[in-house]
Each structure stands twice: as C-alpha cells, then as structure tokens.
Design brief:
disulfide bond, Laminin, mainly beta, binds 2-acetamido-2-deoxy-beta-D-glucopyranose, 2 domains, LRP1-like_beta_prop, EGF-like domain, single chain
Length: 358
C-alpha cells in the first residue's frame, strides 16, 4: 500500500462536497435516482458540461431498487423516494455532511410508484400501482391512511397545497385519465381523458399547468392547464424502433428536465422545445462507451416550488388528533380530520380511536 493511498484516505472525507439545498436566489439542483440505488446531484446552471456534484448511495435491496419517484421537503432538508422492488418509501435527511436515511413506510405497500409532498400540511401522498390506491402518510410518525381506492394503473401524483388540489394520472389507453381531488380525496374531477400511456406527472406551480410523459410508441410530453384548458404537445421524439420515450419528468422555473429512456438526462424550455441540452457528463459509460446507468426518478430541488402559504389547518393541526386534510377552500372549516387505517373518527369529528382497543 502506497503512502499516497493512505494520504488520500485521510484527506478525502474532508474534501467531498456535501449536498446543501439551494437558496431561493440560487439555481435549482437536479437529483436523479439510479436503479443501482444511488442518487446523483448536479447543477444544471453549469451548462451541458455539468458534472455530478455528489453521488449518494441509497438504502434498499441488495440487487438494485427501482427508485422511481422522488420529492423533497425544503424546510427540513429532507428528500423522499419510493422503491417499488422493495415496496418501501424512504427519507434522506441532509444534515451537514451526513446523510441520515430511514424507512418511512413499508407496511401495506405493494408497488409505490408515485410520490408527492405537501410541504404546508406535512403530508406525503403515495400512489400504489398494484393496490390501485392513493395513500397519505405523515412522514414523521409513519401514520398511514388509504385515501382513494379503485384507481387502476395509477402512475403518479402531484400536490399543490396552496390551491388545495391533488392531481394524478392513471389508466392505460381507453381508461387513461388525468384527475384531481381535494387533499382529503374528496371532490374528484376529471381534468382530461386526452391521454393514453401516461407515465410521470409534474406540476408547474407558477403557471398552474400539468406536464406528463407518455410511453412508447407515443414518446411524448404533453401539458394542460389545471382547469383542463389548453392541451399542448410539448415534445415528441421521432417514432421508430430505436427511439426512446421521455420517462421521468420534473419542472422548475423555465425548464423541463427529463430522462430519455433510462440513459440520458435532458433539459428544454417548458414552452417550446427547440433546443435540448443533454447532460453527458452525468451519464456513465463503460470502456466501450455503452451506457451503464439506468436512471429512474428525477427531481428539481428548487425552494421556489415550496413557497410558504396559508395552512388550512391553522397552527394546531385543525384540532385533529391525527390527519388534518384540507378540503374545498370554501368549506367551514376548510379541512376534515382523518384517522390512520385501523382507527375511527369519534363523534366529535376530531379525535381518532383504535377500534381494536374498544
Ligand atoms: C463542453 O466541453 C466540450 C469538450 O471539452 C467543449 O468543447 C465545449 O466548449 C464545452 N461547452 C461548454 C458550454 O462549456
Ligand atoms: C360530524 O360530521 C358528520 C358528517 O359530516 C355530521 O353529520 C355531524 O354533525 C358532525 N358532528 C359534529 C359534532 O360536528
């Protein structure tokens, strides 16, 4: 063993950069998950030659994990992701140079594919493809409530706690729909059924438009206003045997970022895809130049996506003993208390009791 090696071993831990969430006046960072259970972070403002600032190894199964959905909690410096091979949802707390990873939820999940965090009311929404369900989870206590059942082929969810709507894409071909409901799962509305093979959904909070990808052979990114107006095809890759669909998608400020197939990461203007930036230095290749990465979920970590606004539950969780879930804004009160699965709401409509203990 050379002295150089020992020297590097001593010095490297102090040299590695560690992830710090960007400030509002800084550009967003992009986090992309890999099947081999890692997360790569890069700064897209470095341009097409941007390199990986940090690679974080993630918890999960021994033989890889299908980490497909990812969101963040800006206030607490946390990233959440789901793994549908392990049927678990995890969190990673960015804590100075340390990363504290833990399982948030594992019971009652089968194929957790979509995930979205409500940063105002501290609720994590999860969609389960095989159970055909949308769940809500308190990421701190692990309390879980099944919110909506019987949603076939549910792929992804998005949440806007400022307007009080939860969005999702589900179904395939004739049954494909883009829907919304209030955050308590009530007041369901079809926004559009003009889609066929939806995969991932991303909300542009600034312009109140939803963007989603559609799989092969459509290979398309579409967008629509949250009110169902203004359906647009934003991007379509040339169809053909060798073409790859845009799969996972995230939006931040003026840009769309997506994984084309599982190999490449691209960016383009959200209004008009004329010029596409490909981040080649974030990709990994073997000695013969063959791509070795298998990218999964992608996320723009951007504080401007999580602006503070009115908490519909006030500062005391609406008086609810467990979940406080906002409902139509014009209701009084504008929320409903709800209980974790296995518990029931008492007659006061605020407290939960465990039916097994009665
Ligand atoms: C990126 O790197 C290539 C090759 O090193 C170089 O030719 C090109 O000018 C760089 N582009 C930018 C925008 O820095
Ligand atoms: C609880 O909610 C139910 C259903 O909305 C309602 O009928 C009942 O009056 C409520 N109870 C109280 C104490 O407010």
């Amino acid at each position: 063993m050379s002295t150089l090696f020992i020297f590097l071993w001593m010095i490297l831990p102090f040299c590695t950069e560690s992830l710090v969430f960007p400030r509002q006046d800084e550009s967003p960072l992009i986090a992309v998950l890999g099947f081999d259970r890692f997360m790569n972070i890069f700064d897209p403002s470095d341009g097409p030659n941007a390199t990986v600032l940090e690679r974080i190894n993630l918890m999960g199964g021994d033989w890889g994990g299908a980490s497909c959905s990812i969101d963040f909690n800006y206030r607490d410096n946390v990233i959440y992701w789901s793994d549908y091979y392990e049927s678990k949802v995890y969190s990673l707390k960015v804590n100075g140079g340390d990363y504290e990873q833990r399982v948030i939820l594992e019971d009652g999940l089968d194929f957790p594919e979509g995930l979205a965090y409500d940063w105002i009311h501290n609720n994590l929404y999860i969609s389960d493809f095989r159970r055909h369900e949308i769940l809500v989870v308190n990421p701190d206590t692990g309390d879980k409530r099944t919110l909506i059942t019987g949603v076939p082929d549910i792929r992804d969810v998005e949440v806007d706690p400022r307007t009080g709507w939860l969005y999702w894409i589900s179904g395939w071909e004739d049954t494909a729909v883009l829907m919304k409901s209030t955050l308590d799962g009530q007041n369901q509305v079809v926004i559009s059924s003009d889609l066929a093979m939806p995969k991932t959904l991303s909300l542009d909070y600034d312009e109140q438009r939803l963007y989603w990808t559609e799989m092969s052979p459509l290979n398309i990114i579409k967008s629509i206003g949250v009110d169902g107006e203004g359906l647009t095809t934003v991007y379509q890759t040339v169809s053909g045997r060798l073409s790859t669909p845009p799969k996972y998608l995230t939006i931040s400020r003026e840009y769309l970022y997506w994984n084309q197939g599982h190999e490449t990461i691209r960016r383009a203007d959200k209004h008009q895809v004329t010029e596409i930036t490909r981040y080649r230095n974030v990709e990994e290749r073997d000695a013969r130049g063959k791509p070795t990465n298998m990218f999964m979920g992608i996320l723009a970590i951007d504080p401007r996506k999580q602006m503070e606004s009115e908490n519909f539950c006030g500062n005391n969780n609406g008086g609810c003993s467990h979940f406080c879930l906002p409902t139509l804004i014009q209701s009084t009160p504008p929320y409903n208390c709800a209980c974790p699965d296995g518990m029931n709401l008492m007659d006061d409509n605020y407290s939960c009791f465990d039916e097994r203990q009665m």
